[in-house]
Amino acid sequence: xxxxxxxxxxxxxxxxxxxxxxxxxxxxxxxxxxxxxxxxxxxxxxxxxxxxxxxxxxxxxxxxxxxxxxxxxxxxxxxxxxxxxxxxxxxxxxxxxxxxxxxxxxxxxxxxxxxxxxxxxxxxxxxxxxxxxxxxxxxxxxxxxxxxxxxxxxxxxxxxxxxxxxxxxxxxxxxxxxxxxxxxxxxxxxxxxxxxxxxxxxxxxxxxxxxxxxxxxxxxxxxxxxxxxxxxxxxxxxxxxxxxxx
Length: 246
Ligand SMILES: [Zn+2]
Fold this sequence. Notes:
Blueprint: H1 3-13, H2 25-28, H3 34-38, E1 45-46, E2 54-55, H4 56-71, E3 77-80, H5 85-101, H6 106-113, E4 130-134, H7 157-166, E5 172-174, E6 191-194, H8 195-205, H9 210-217, H10 227-238
Antiparallel strand pairs: 1-2, 3-4, 4-6, 5-6
The structure holds zinc ion.
């Protein structure tokens, strides 16, 4: 039975929540709209710039975390926060054109893009709950989002150490961990998610029909997304993440 039909049935038959002990209220009601889940409009996003736009709750808690870190002499700078569907589409399609013009087949180009970048409509940055962080901007580093900067003698080691010790108790979790068994996106020591909002969003996101979204939005290259590809992308890139965020 579809969820909406179920809700109607519950309403029509007058079954109260009290006789459904195994179903919490949140399971009976979708909290997020499709546009919210795929970056096409979200009234909960606050902020004006690329690095300050976040889900209002995530932002409030991020600012608290930033203050806490500052007390310990650590600066947390956001390099990327909320990203719209259209922005992700630009990023994806620019890379797609570049790689295919270099001679890669469409499918090879797509696989290369999804080492680090998402297909529009599937980015956790669409939710406003996820941020990419570095330390001490402006950074002299040309490409600061590389794992080597967060380890060894890297420029952001102190930041990473502080996050390892403190971020989870403040609600922020690494998404793409360095677990060697993990598939999907590569290790991203800079990408954190505000779990109290992103966990319920992922639960609802899982119910979406991705193929329908890609087809409707006419993403460049989407004609090469086979059923198998989409299934693999869903299982590995969307769901093979830090298990604490599932
Ligand atoms: Zn990110």
